[in-house]
Amino acid sequence: MIKFLDLGLQYRGIKVEIDLAIETIIQNTDFINGQSVREFEQEFSAYIDVEHCIGVGNGTDALEIAIESFGLPKGAEIIVPGNSFIASSEAVTRAGHRVQFCDCREDTFSMDIEDVERRITESTKALVVVHMYGNPCDMDAVTKLAEKYNLRIVEDCAQAHGAKYKGKMVGGFGDVGAFSFYPGKNLGAYGDAGAIVTSDHSLSEKIRMIGNHGRISKYDHEFEGRNSRLDGLQAAILSVKLKHLDDWVARRRAVAEAYLKNIVQKDEVRCMTLLNSSECAYHLFVVRVNRRDELKNYLNTHGVETGIHYPVALPKLNAYKYLQQSSGDMVCNQLDGKVLSLPMGEHITMKNVKYISDLINEFYK
Ligand SMILES: *Cc1c(COP(=O)(O)O)cnc(C)c1O
Q1: Which of 67, 83, 167, 286 could pair with 95 as two cysteines, CB 3.0-4.6 Å apart?
Q2: Distance separating alpha carbons of residues 188 and 195, to the nearest angstrom
Q3: Given its phi and psi angles, is residue 71 left (phi above 0), alpha (psi -120 to 50 degrees) or beta?
Q4: pLDDT value at residue 325
């Protein structure tokens, strides 16, 4: 079986470093807000090339706390792409605001900027920009729109560690960037973990306080916050893995290039396209195909595991019935029946890519 994801293989390659890092934390009882957290925050802000990084409990909290830090009026509208994981929109509602879904492009799967502009109203105050599958959005266009309408930007980088737009890491373009270190992400912890990056000093202080009971020092609570902190053990694990991230992303890009070379593209089979100015982190390698479920089955019977990200577009979920935005003419509402994620990661060999591509070409012959 060619696995969709193989975290065990990755662990075996770095076992000595990881085991030592974990042992050190336990011996030093450095569990909460200790040295390992500060070190990882510094390393990660340097990696993204921003001033500040604040570790939090997970990627969903990262989005929610980032939005909360803007202090927008209650009921403000925030635009979110309809093709994402629910965390992108959940964070908006949880922070006390109203979700407005926008459409995505069929070729890049990223936010359709013209559609975003059509949906902006007097109440629109921010955009959640999702670098879906690791494919950077058109940040020049996003930034222009934000300036024109005075909007805050949160970049949802949960799938985009190591992705670049015009040579610069994503996460550093918006007011804030939100990262998830869920185990299966490009940079994954061994449990839940997340981080927020920003170069805005006052936002960074507010974010740190929100995630730590509204305080800076021990019992000086300035306001009611919450508890969402990066775990010390996870921080130590992430520091070890961060050193390997560029190699892993390079490997993903090589696998993607091989897929692009081997899969015969035609009307029934299209691979995700990139903007000229972007370097995709290929968290997922997604194809847009006809007869998707049949192909998934066919690959499975030939020993190839695949995934679907995501099977139901956000506007069509029961959770968003109240928005009444499930209209069939949105691209995202049709794309969910066509997307298929092929096996991707360091565990995939060039031989695997050839085998999988041949199966796909055969299926559509
Ligand atoms: C994984 C993911 C999240 C949420 O991250 P968690 O750490 O699981 O909370 C948010 N947005 C996107 C696009 C994701 O893929």
Answers
A1: 67
A2: 12
A3: left
A4: 83
Shortest-distance Cα residue to atom 6 of ligand 1: 59
Q: Show the tokens assigned to 216.
A: 């800076």
Give, for ligand 1, the residue of 84, 180, 231 to mutate: max count of ligand atoms closer than 8 Å to Cβ.
Answer: 180
Ligand 1 atom closest to Cα of residue 180:
7
Distance, CA 265 to ligand 1 centroid (Å)? 30
Indicate if the pLDDT at residue 275 is higher than 90. no
pLDDT tens string 317-328:
999 999 988 777
Q: What distance in angstroms lies between residue 223's CA and the mean position of ligand 1's atoms?
A: 27
- DSSP calls for 121-189: -TTEEEEEEE-GGG----HHHHHHHHHHHT-EEEEE-TT-TT-EETTEETTSSSSEEEEE--TTSSS--
pTM summary value? 0.97
Q: What is the pLDDT of residue 124?
A: 98
Question: Please, what sign has the CA dihedral across residues 311, 317, 319, 323?
Answer: positive
For the segment 78-100, the average pLDDT, to the nearest whole number, is: 97
The angle formed by the CA atoms of residues 66, 70 and 76, to the nearest 5 degrees, is 105
Radius of gyration of the chain (CA): 20
Percent of the chain scoring above 90 in pLDDT:
96
For the chain, percent of residues with pLDDT exceeding 70: 100
| φ/ψ of residue 190, rounded to 5 | -105, 40
State how far the Cα of 95 lies from the Cα of 100, in Å rounded to an integer: 14
